[in-house]
Design a protein that fits this description.
This is Transketolase. Keywords: Thiamine pyrophosphate. Its cofactor is thiamine diphosphate. InterPro entries: THDP-binding (IPR029061), Transketolase_N (IPR005474). Helix content is about 40%, strand content about 10%. It has helices at about 5-25, 30-35, 35-45, 75-80, 125-135, 155-165, 190, 195-205, 215-230, 265-270, and strands spanning about 65, 145-150, 175-180, 180-185, 185, 205-210, 235-240. The strands form 2 sheets. Strands 1-2-3-7-6 form a 5-stranded parallel beta sheet, with helices on both faces. A hairpin with a 2-residue loop joins strand 4 (about 180-185) and strand 5 (about 185). Helix 1 (about 5-25) packs across helix 4 (about 75-80) and helix 5 (about 125-135) packs parallel to helix 6. The longest helix has 22 residues, at about 5-25. The radius of gyration is 17 Å and the shape is globular.
Length: about 280
């Protein structure tokens, strides 16, 4: 289990990976990847019970994670590689012809760590619910985690899934929303008026928690509270308040880097603001 200082060091390296991957590919989604980096680092290096050496897509006798917001693949791949699922140098193949590291996670080439193909927004939460129900049928006491985007919450399937999970008391599911208030077309409230997500999820019958997505103490506390709330008849949603592009000043707080790669000069400026802690690939 990593300490807070270790998590900060890993997170800095993960953000470097994200910047270098999307720059190298000249495409990708750095903004949301940067905003959710701290959570995924905490999840894989401190919170989840998982073992890369024995992992299978079924995740039997392990916790499972599904990235519903599949365009956040850069942070997902970096965290998987840095936690031992596949070699770190493979990050350099991101979005290249023939790579296992496609723009959105895919299972067609058996990339270790990826449970579910994702990218069509709204679908990953439903898949996570199905996996959580399967664990209950197998008497597997482990948890299923899912990460959704706040813009993704404009998808109708998210709310169908929300109703289903509450109705069927899927209480081994911990979902997390990256609440950075930005999406590709602008501020989420300007695009579709998502508004305050807490009363919405509560109205659908979920246990709702909140955390600061860039404070590891807050993230770890929320995850502990979420585990404590499981097994009581309700699925759990953690609303994680974040800043899109967190870690790089010219990317921070704007939707302009939702799906845009830096050029080489911008990449170097970004890297100068992020400490290399584990060694670049």
């Amino acid at each position: 289990m990593a300490s807070i200082d270790e998590l900060k060091r890993i997170s800095s390296q993960v953000r470097r990976d994200i910047i270098r991957m999307v720059t190298g590919a000249k495409s990708g989604h750095p903004g949301g990847s940067m905003s959710s980096a701290d959570f995924l680092v905490a999840l894989y290096f401190n919170v989840m019970d998982h073992d890369p050496a024995s992992w299978t897509r079924e995740c039997r006798n392990q916790d499972a994670f599904i990235l519903s917001a599949g365009h956040l693949s850069p942070v997902y791949y970096s965290v998987l590689a840095r936690s031992g699922y596949f070699p770190v140098p493979e990050l350099g193949t991101f979005r290249k012809l023939g790579t296992r590291l496609q723009g959105h996670p895919s299972v067609d080439r058996d990339l270790p760590g990826v449970v579910q193909t994702s990218g069509s927004l709204g679908q990953g939460l439903s898949a996570a619910i199905g996996m959580a129900m399967g664990k209950k049928l197998d008497n597997d006491p482990h948890y299923v985690y899912a990460l959704v985007g706040d813009g993704e919450c404009e998808e109708g399937q998210i709310w169908e899934a929300a109703m289903f999970a509450a109705h069927h008391r899927v209480d081994n599911l911990i979902a997390v929303t990256d609440w950075n208030r930005q999406q590709i077309d602008g501020n989420i409230d300007d695009v579709a008026g998502v508004g305050d997500l807490r009363p919405k999820w509560e109205a659908f019958g979920w246990e709702v928690l909140e955390c600061d997505g860039h404070d590891f103490n807050s993230i770890l506390s929320a995850c502990a509270d979420a585990k404590a709330a499981c097994g009581k008849g309700r699925p759990v949603m953690i609303l994680m308040k974040t800043v899109m592009g967190e870690g790089v000043d010219f990317m921070s707080g704007t939707n302009q880097w939702h799906g845009k790669a830096p050029n080489q000069e911008q990449c170097q400026v970004a890297l100068s603001q992020l400490e290399e802690t584990l060694g670049d690939y």
